[in-house]
Amino acid sequence: MRHANIDSGDKRLSFTLCAIVTGLFMTNISEGIGHLLGVNAETVSLACKLLILLSLLVCATVILERLNVMMVLTALAFVICVILNFIIFPDNSVFFAKTVSTFLLTILPGMICLMALEDYRPCLRALIVASCIISLINTFVLLIMSDVQFGSGYSMGYANSMILPTNVLIYVLLEKNVSFLKKVGVALLIVLNIVSVMAYGSRGALVAIMAFVLVFGFKMLRKKTDFLIILAIIMTLLLCVIFYRQIFSAVYNLLKQFGFNSRTLYLLSTDIGHDSGRSELWGEVIADISSNPFIAHGINGDYALIGIYSHSFIFELVHSLGILFGGIAIIFVLYLIIRTVFSRSDEYNAVKSVMLFSFFPICLFSLSVWTNMYFWLWLTVCLRGYAIQNKSTTKRI
Asked: Which pTM value belongs to this model?
């Protein structure tokens, strides 16, 4: 997957991927942008999604030149799944139509780019550029228009869109071939990102970032000093766990003095185990599964049942596909997760890792895999890597 020179086609594909990742973040701050521009937030969100779709024009010729079996099979699978879900599960149609729209406008373009990509070096660089852009915009949002964007004091979508850029910057911070001044700038952006997630985000986003630090940190070990750095990070995290109430309470009170009323920090400092009603949702989904485990309820069948997604990819897949096919899908996903965690350190596996920890382990207690872009991008990168070993699936048409 590594080449001496970077192909211009790979650069264009990576640029499009950068635009897609940035566009996804922009959809999650559409309320603030809409206020500044004087337009409706939904209009801004739709415009961002359309721009993501249009960004494919930058690399359209590259995609056509590199059209392969994997792309065709993915397109066919998408069309067949959409048709079957509408026909077999009409009760899910209203919810499923929104899922199809999200998938078509934001997820599928990114998957296509990754299926055409042959060198992951420009892809990683594009993610670094996108992460810096997002982090700078986030700083502006945090300091200038937080009252407008976060009127309710909480946004899960915003927090989840901040995980990947933060993880990518952590990767840059741990890299050896980065100058000291750049690391200082990156460290500052990481701190501001984490503060913004604490102020207006969710506990799950913080868990994902912490998991990435631990897993990827160990993979970056090269010498004794590296071990000492990781050990210091682990000890710091352990102290945070032991004294979490005092720490989060102090940070909550400090931010409150500056006008930040954080729901996440309040829960962390008072009731960290509060499940926000998840146990009730899980109870209903489990009861529906138990009534007939082998019956599939279709994609978004949980919406038809409880009015929202299952808040666990395990329950979501079993409820959607039935215990047989859902179980197979879960085992396959877990297998790929283990392979990603224990993969060697290079550009390809770095891309896999930052994408994995953009939805994992949050997907165990939140998110919907059907509409989470990073789940599908990670899955595409994994399958693309394995497909390269099987020339028949990467053969150009």
From this structure: 0.84
